[in-house]
């Protein structure tokens, strides 16, 4: 099935594996929290157990160096796309309030990005993520 929207997550390539997974999980939660239309219906197995709903469409994970993240961030903002960011300082904080304060303390073009997520029309997301490889 081809969707007219796309979810893309970009993670800085030089992070430790645990950091990549952590960043990806946090960024995916931002998309789920903001774009209700991307969530499908709850699941149930034949035994009657129910499970939480998930994204109704694929989430593509990309890899980038620091410059690629900056370029992608700039493109996303210039297109007005819903964007989530994860910065280096967030590895040192303990909760959401501190995370927001860390981001708010830095100008957009100086954010020490380690990851970002974008959601929107397929064509706009493709242009925003152009040139980035899928994460290996």
From TrEMBL:
Pfam assignment, any one: DUF2000
Top-level taxon: Bacteria
Descriptive protein name: DUF2000 domain-containing protein
Organism: Sphaerisporangium flaviroseum
